[in-house]
Design a protein that fits this description.
heterodimer; A: ABC transporter involved in vitamin B12 uptake, BtuC; two-stranded antiparallel ribbon; two-stranded antiparallel sheet; globular; B: 6-stranded mixed beta sheet; 23% strand
């Protein structure tokens, strides 16, 4: 049975982005061959891995018609806590650090979720508040001090850089995360619940879905991943300070939007989000090569977001129901 | 409300009552959305508690609501199994879902592709998917709230056959409807509600439409349409060769002052699309609109309103009214300029106007500041009508104006339309209800698949002729 037209149209939304990214890589590769090599591309993946994880975690949040502006602040706070813990207990082992990070992140995310679920605070308001709170707390727990690599144990630093079959563990985490997200959203009841809750929150009640509770779960997941990302970031850049990942939440949301996740909720694909992240990652890594300043990067990202939203909106509306029947002769 | 209801396996029980009589409340209690303050629900003689929709589903109760409960971004198959996805080892089994969806849709004799996103379906198709959902639960009790409101005549007949099959399977069907022909065609038992209380129950063969109406309304109501009177004036609106890609073509219509032009057709025939183009919501690709002798171009609804054209849309929840707003705010929506002084709203004038309409259209509400969310569907529709009547239109387009409204309210609407027509307003009435269009319209145009198929004068129009033209049978 051949694929119906609309299935191809939906694939088209994601495919365009993949093709675009590929074209970009080829284009830059012709001018700077080192970019399009395996080493170069692996480096781009490594650099984009944290964005991929955070964007995938943001996806359920946006699916349920919410938004989590506090992810970067969460990341910074847990990263600082991880670094502090590691500094105080350098022999505790990497597992303990990871568990700590995820736990703290989960609690921070659950706090957001509780504000939205129990106190019915609109997500944008709640996470705008926690963005400031968590960011402020980084200063409080660290006393303003910076933790640099000479205060980090070898385990702490080596984990993300460890090589496994040619890719760093960090890259593998991103790949694993993508697979988990794909299967979770497609094959679990909770995963499907995100789509239902966002597609029609009023009707979701009749379908037995508790929308505020789904949002709580989404925020908790977002927080947990942000927690893990906190450790990953601090370890990868070998530094923890107050302004870690400042403003990164906008990159995360941009990646989702470029990747076709509908801000109105109910629609989004994992492949799209990953494509969005890679697209941004390629741009970020290519611009310095080409000699364009990082400030242009923001402008280009912004332009791409707007273009993506317009393109996605157009695609979604292209189906006009055929009523008129052509006259038969 | 003070409710009482007995449902028997293998029987269809019709739940009849005016809007606001308590039917929706009863349904919401049965499906776990509301909790009763007192009283008992028994299943097979044993008392049960229904605390949530999940409880209701577990007890084998499923419901098809009047307003669509569908998820546009999700496929048809998943919509069908939205509360109970087939699983294998705890994971969603998409293959099984598609397979079972195909089977159920085949049972409903429709060829909707289960993999399609719900968004692409027409209103009638979405409704069928909801029915498929009820079938998928293998429920013992199936509640249907105005199930044929959005269906064409043929689709409704198909549905009645499906209900017959449900009956034969030993299920109990609770059928809420205002269409007496259907009640008498399919129901075994009836229960009539008025003002929140069950006022009568019995076996359908032993009663008549008049008796049921009397019970519903508490007084005898003549189920006739107000008689035609008054002169038909000069032609006020003409559509010449109107075309719009993929929607309609070669539409030639004319309506005179003091005349009701009915447009009949199956759901999805393109009737609303034509009037939406007329009202400026969309732009036609070809053709002319001639208003009062002048060829005009209506680019948006604002221009249409200024030209004294009014459009009461089909979907009151989304296109007709703003539900969180009050009655008076809704009534004022299309007349804000005339109800304001120097840019500031004149609240006294607005309230007076709203109260006037509440009285004239017999809108059941506690006051003019009550939010539309709290009103029943029929009363919401009356507010939408009031909003447009407030603009004092010369041409009034009514798109399924009495869909899902009880007999008493319908009669009030017909009376108002007649009065308007007598005062010289030209009315375009889109309707899928044969008695309504035959009883009200002076001329009837029939559309099918985007084109005009026939035009009848009142005297020549019969139900058979209309249906034949609409289906090209």
């Amino acid at each position: 049975m051949n694929r119906p037209a609309y299935k191809l149209a939906l694939l088209g939304r994601d495919a365009t982005l993949w093709v675009l990214t590929l074209l970009l890589v080829i284009a830059i590769g012709t001018v700077f061959p080192q970019f399009a090599t395996l080493v170069g591309l692996k480096s781009v993946l490594d650099d984009t891995s944290i964005l991929i994880l955070l964007a995938l975690a943001q996806m359920p949040v946006i699916l349920t018609r919410s938004i989590d502006l506090s992810v970067a602040a969460n990341l910074a706070l847990t990263g600082m806590c991880a670094a502090l813990f590691n500094h105080a207990f350098p022999d505790a082992g990497i597992t303990a650090v990871i568990i700590l990070s995820i736990t703290i992140g989960t609690l921070l995310g659950a706090f957001n979720g509780a504000l939205v679920w129990l106190l019915e605070v609109p997500p944008i308001v709640a996470t705008l508040g926690t963005l400031a709170i968590y960011r402020g707390m980084v200063f409080v727990v660290s006393g303003g001090a910076w933790i640099t690599n000479n205060k980090m144990s070898a385990d702490f630093l080596n984990f993300v850089r460890a090589d496994l079959l040619g890719l760093t563990l960090l890259s593998w985490l991103a790949i694993t995360g993508s697979l988990l997200a794909y299967f979770g959203l497609k094959y679990t009841e909770v995963g499907r619940g995100f789509f239902v809750a966002g597609s029609n929150p009023e009707a979701a009640l009749y379908a037995g879905i508790n929308v505020p509770r789904m949002r709580f779960i989404a925020f908790t997941i977002s927080g947990a991943v942000a927690g893990l990302a906190g450790y990953l970031w601090v370890s990868r850049f070998a530094i923890a300070y107050t302004d870690v990942a400042q403003g990164f939440e906008l990159q995360v949301i941009a990646a989702c939007v470029i990747g076709g996740v509908s801000i109105a909720g109910g629609y989004g694909t994992v492949t799209g989000v990953v494509a969005g992240c890679l697209f941004l990652g390629v741009i970020k890594n290519a611009l310095p090569l080409v000699g364009i300043s990082p400030f242009w990067q923001m402008a280009i990202s912004g332009f791409v977001i707007v273009a993506a939203v317009i393109l996605n909106a157009r695609r979604g509306q292209s189906v006009r129901r055929r009523i008129l029947e052509e006259p038969s002769t | 409300m003070d409710g009482q209801l007995d449902l028997h396996a293998g029987e269809v029980t019709a739940l009849i009552g005016e809007n606001g009589a308590g039917k929706s409340t009863l349904v919401k209690i049965l499906t776990g959305i509301y909790q009763p303050d007192s009283g008992v629900i028994q299943l097979d003689g044993a008392p049960v508690r229904i605390h949530s929709p999940a409880d209701a589903q577990k007890l084998g109760i499923s419901v098809i609501h009047q307003e669509s409960v569908v998820f546009d971004d999700i496929s048809v198959a998943e919509n069908i199994f939205i509360t109970a996805r087939p699983t294998r080892c705890g994971l969603v089994d998409w293959a099984a879902m598609r397979h079972r969806a195909t089977r159920i849709l085949a049972q409903l004799e429709t060829n909707i592709d289960p993999a399609r996103p719900m968004r692409e379906l027409s209103v009638a198709q979405k409704h069928l998917v909801q029915i498929a959902r009820a079938l998928s639960h293998d429920s013992r009790i199936v509640i249907m709230d105005e199930p044929t409101a959005a269906l064409s005549h043929n689709e409704a007949q198909d549905l009645l056959r499906i209900i017959w099959r449900l009956k034969a399977d030993g299920r109990a069907v609770l059928f809420i409807s205002h269409k007496f022909e259907e009640v008498f065609a399919i129901a075994d038992r009836y229960v009539v509600y008025r003002d929140g209380t069950a006022v009568g129950t019995g076996m359908v063969p032993g009663t008549s439409v008049d008796q049921l109406i009397t019970l519903m309304v508490g007084r005898t109501v003549d189920q006739v349409f107000p008689p035609r009177s008054g002169q038909v004036g000069p032609e006020v609106l003409k559509l010449e060769g109107l075309c719009r890609k993929a929607e309609f073509a070669d539409i030639n219509l004319a309506v005179c002052q003091g005349e009701i032009l009915g447009i009949y057709g199956l759901v999805g025939a393109g009737r609303s699309e034509v009037t939406q183009a007329l009202f400026g919501l969309t732009t036609p690709d070809k053709g002319r609109v001639i208003l009062g002798g002048h060829s005009i171009r209506i680019r948006n609804a604002d221009e249409a309103i200024r030209l004294k054209i009014a459009y009461v849309p089909e979907d009151r929840q989304r296109q007709g009214a703003i539900l969180p707003l009050s009655i008076q705010d809704n009534v004022a929506l299309a007349s804000l300029k005339s109800l304001s002084n120097l840019g500031f709203r004149n609240r006294l004038q607005t309230r007076r106007a709203a109260q006037q309409w509440i009285d004239r259209l017999q809108i059941k509400a506690s006051s003019s500041v009550q939010s539309l969310e709290e009103l029943s569907g029929g009363n919401q529709q009356k507010v939408v009508l009031a909003k447009w009547l407030q603009t004092d239109p010369k041409v009034l387009i009514l798109d399924e104006p009495t869909k899902g409204i009880d007999v008493g309210s319908k009669a009030a609407v017909y009376k108002i339309v007649r009065e308007l027509v007598q005062r010289g307003v030209a009315v375009i009435l889109i309707s899928s209800e044969l008695p309504e269009i035959l009883g009200m319209a002076d001329r009837i145009a029939v559309m099918r698949r985007g084109r005009l198929r026939a035009c009848f004068h009142r005297a020549d129009a019969t139900a058979e002729a209309l249906v034949r033209a609409a289906t090209d049978a």
